[in-house]
């Protein structure tokens, strides 16, 4: 990131947004997965708190085109820019998660060093090989069994204690309102696609790998610089138990060509004093057991979890059959978008008033905008400022405009619509309702710099509604002349 004048084009799941801002820092762009994650967090928020007023975001998504999933992501991005800040919260959460993971990694390294030193001691007393092995692998083995049980469906989110700790600590760093939906969405996505165990397992196995690597390094350093004797001790077990245990744990290291203690060495280690000639055998047995039964499984599981999570990020797609997205489908991609009026017609639309018997005393003229795209400015320079009203993008704005026109009808009312979108039932019904409060209603088919492929569809729908061909306008100049024309 750099300061200064910058022109950047950022791609969001197939939607390109050009951003030119002087002397600002360009925020870290969200990748395709993070944009879908943002859409999921927005869905959960709306599911819990109710739908947002998103007419402008819906319109921008429709105008942007693309698949339904791309439109959902575009809607989430525009909502975030205008009302949210959730994308910034996502970046903060990502930074907090990395910071907590770094702190846990440092703690794992320190723990491993301490573990290696504690099992060997200061060299003044012989090392009990059974206690040393239990100290090195006991907790690791227990947590590994719990995780494996969860991986095959016998556990839940609680299987990864390190993962839960990471989530809790990350959540404590980010207590802002928008940040709470992000981990919820990520956990929900992981649970529904069966990768939650792998996601949290990356951290758990990664921390254990660091711990065991540090313990191995500490163990080797102490064995190289101090003289240790190795014994085993028991009151009720026979020597044969330790012979079988040593032989069983030495099978895999033995396949690698490492020298392992034999039965005679086990018998000697059970004596009153350690046998000096066996020090290297027991050192190799202890370190190889740590590598083969501790370090290698954790490293391989970490690699597997990372592979699963990377594949999930690459292939994850929104579940558009979810009720939250199904509700958006009709707003973002009308079912008859290619041709015809979006939404099937009801039994009847409000009647378009062609006689216009309303009495007008001051020959008022007014122009309104109905769901224009964000690239179509309003009020436009082509129309007189005194004759332009507001934008009818929300239910409240439409109600206020109807109330005002009911109190003060106008002689001519010009309504600008976005001709790049299909005419829907609600727009046609509103035009019919607006016609009650004007002696003559005109519709301006705005299209910006693009070719309006749906302009013939609009003309056909408006003519069937009752709007005259002379009152359907396609150019800014024609719209102005129509608004200022004298009916006398």
Automatic annotation (TrEMBL):
<dbReference type="InterPro" id="IPR021296">
    <property type="entry name" value="DUF2868"/>
</dbReference>
<feature type="transmembrane region" description="Helical">
    <location>
        <begin position="284"/>
        <end position="307"/>
    </location>
</feature>
<protein>
    <submittedName>
        <fullName>DUF2868 domain-containing protein</fullName>
    </submittedName>
</protein>
<keyword id="KW-0812">Transmembrane</keyword>
<feature type="transmembrane region" description="Helical">
    <location>
        <begin position="129"/>
        <end position="154"/>
    </location>
</feature>
<feature type="transmembrane region" description="Helical">
    <location>
        <begin position="206"/>
        <end position="224"/>
    </location>
</feature>
<keyword id="KW-0472">Membrane</keyword>
<dbReference type="Pfam" id="PF11067">
    <property type="entry name" value="DUF2868"/>
</dbReference>
<feature type="transmembrane region" description="Helical">
    <location>
        <begin position="99"/>
        <end position="117"/>
    </location>
</feature>
<keyword id="KW-1133">Transmembrane helix</keyword>
């Amino acid at each position: 990131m750099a300061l200064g004048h910058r022109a950047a084009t950022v791609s969001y799941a197939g939607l390109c947004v050009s951003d030119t801002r002087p002397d600002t820092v360009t925020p870290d762009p969200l990748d395709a997965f993070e944009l879908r994650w943002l859409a999921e967090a927005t869905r959960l928020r709306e599911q819990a708190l109710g739908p947002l007023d998103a007419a402008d975001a819906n319109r921008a998504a429709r105008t942007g085109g693309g698949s339904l999933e791309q439109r959902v992501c575009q809607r989430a991005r525009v909502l975030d820019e205008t009302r949210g800040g959730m994308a910034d919260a996502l970046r903060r959460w990502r930074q907090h998660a990395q910071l907590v993971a770094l702190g846990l990694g440092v703690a794992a390294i320190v723990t491993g060093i301490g573990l290696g030193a504690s099992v060997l001691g200061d060299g003044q007393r012989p090392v009990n090989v059974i206690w040393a092995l239990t100290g090195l692998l006991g907790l690791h083995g227990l947590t590994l069994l719990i995780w494996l049980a969860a991986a095959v469906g016998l556990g839940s989110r609680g299987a990864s204690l390190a993962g839960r700790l990471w989530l809790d600590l990350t959540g404590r760093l980010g207590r802002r309102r928008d940040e709470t939906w992000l981990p919820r969405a990520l956990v929900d996505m992981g649970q529904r696609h069966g990768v939650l165990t792998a996601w949290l397992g990356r951290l758990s196995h990664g921390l254990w790998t660091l711990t065991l690597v540090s313990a191995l390094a500490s163990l080797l350093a102490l064995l190289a610089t101090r003289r240790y004797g190795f014994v085993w001790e028991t009151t009720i077990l026979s020597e044969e138990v330790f012979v079988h245990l040593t032989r069983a744990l030495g099978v895999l290291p033995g396949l690698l060509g490492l020298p392992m203690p034999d039965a005679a060495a086990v018998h000697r280690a059970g004596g009153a004093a350690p046998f000096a000639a066996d020090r290297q055998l027991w050192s190799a047995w202890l370190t190889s057991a740590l590598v083969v039964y501790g370090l290698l499984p954790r490293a391989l599981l970490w690699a597997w979890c990372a592979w699963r999570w990377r594949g999930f990020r690459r292939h994850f797609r929104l579940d558009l059959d979810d009720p939250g997205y199904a509700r958006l489908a009709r707003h973002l991609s009308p079912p008859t978008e290619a041709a015809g009026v979006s939404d099937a017609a009801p039994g009847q639309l409000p009647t378009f008033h062609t006689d216009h018997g309303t009495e007008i005393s001051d020959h008022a003229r007014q122009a309104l905008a109905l769901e224009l795209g964000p690239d179509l400015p309003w009020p436009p320079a082509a129309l007189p400022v005194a004759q332009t009203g507001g934008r009818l993008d929300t239910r409240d704005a439409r109600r206020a405009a109807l109330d005002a026109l009911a109190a003060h009808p106008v002689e001519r009312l010009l309504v600008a619509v976005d001709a790049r979108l299909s005419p829907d039932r609600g727009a046609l019904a509103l035009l019919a309702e607006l016609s009650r409060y004007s002696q003559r209603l005109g519709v301006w088919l705005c299209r910006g710099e693009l070719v309006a492929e749906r302009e013939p569809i609009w003309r056909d729908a408006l003519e069937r509604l009752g709007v005259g061909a002379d009152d359907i306008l396609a150019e800014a100049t024609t719209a102005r002349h129509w608004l200022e024309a004298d009916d006398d």
